[in-house]
Amino acid sequence: MADIHINMSVQERAPMTALYEEHSGAYNLIGAKFDVVVNTGKTLLGLPEAEMLTLGIYYNDPYSTPVDQLRSRACLVLTDPQAERAKAAGKNVMIVPGGKYAVGHCTIGCEQFGPAWAKFMEMLPTQGLKSDTTRTCYEAYVGHDRNTFTLDLCEPIL
Prior knowledge:
Strand content: 35-45%
Mean pLDDT: 93
Distance between the termini: 33 Å
Shape: globular
Order of helices and strands: EEHEEHEEHEE
Strand order of the largest sheet: 1-6-8-7-3-4-2-5
Largest sheet: 8 strands, antiparallel
Low-confidence stretches: none
Oligomer: single chain
C-alpha cells in the first residue's frame, strides 16, 4: 500500500445544507447511497455532476462499533433554494454543523479510507488539537476517478 500523505490545517467551516440518504452497515458499502443523491441532484435539481459537492458523514467509530450498527449518510450540498425544492419533493435535508475543524487534505485509493483516518487522527494530538465529540466528522469529496479520491477529512475540534 502506498504511503498516505495528508496536508493538515485548521479551518472555520460554515454550516452546510445537504440532501442525504441514510446508510447502515459497513462504511465501504455506502456507494449506492451516493449514486442516489447524485442522481437526485441531476434529475430533480438539474445540477451538473462536475459542480456537485458530496459529503460522507460517519456517526460511529468502526473500530469499536459492530458493523451492523454503523450509521452514515451520503450527502449532496445544496443552496437554500435547492434545499426547498428537495424538501418539497419529500427528500431528506439536513444541516451539517459548521465550526472549527481539523482538515486533512489527501488523495487516496479505495482501500485507504480507514488508514487515512487513522493517520489523520494520530496527527491531531501532535498539533495540540482535541476532537469535539458534540459534532460529527465528515469527508468532503473534492474529486475522484475510478481508482482514487481527493478529499478533505474533517474532524470537529475544540
